Amino acid sequence: MNLSDLALGFHLPDVDLGSLDYRELIRSKSDWSVVAGIILACREGNFEFLKDVHKVMQRNDGYLLWSACINIVGYAGTWESVVNLSQHLSANGGEAENAHFIAVLFGTSCDLRAVDKLLHIYMTTKELDTLNQIRADLSSLLEPTNGEVFDGIDDDGDGDDMPSRDGRERYSQVVRKRRDAVLATLPDSRPPVFEGQIYSVIATARRLLEQIEAEPEYGERFFRGKMIFEAATGTDCSGFFDELGRLRRIQASAVLEGFFDREDLNKYQVGQRYFFNYPIPS
Question: What is the pTM of this model?
Answer without folding.
Answer: 0.94
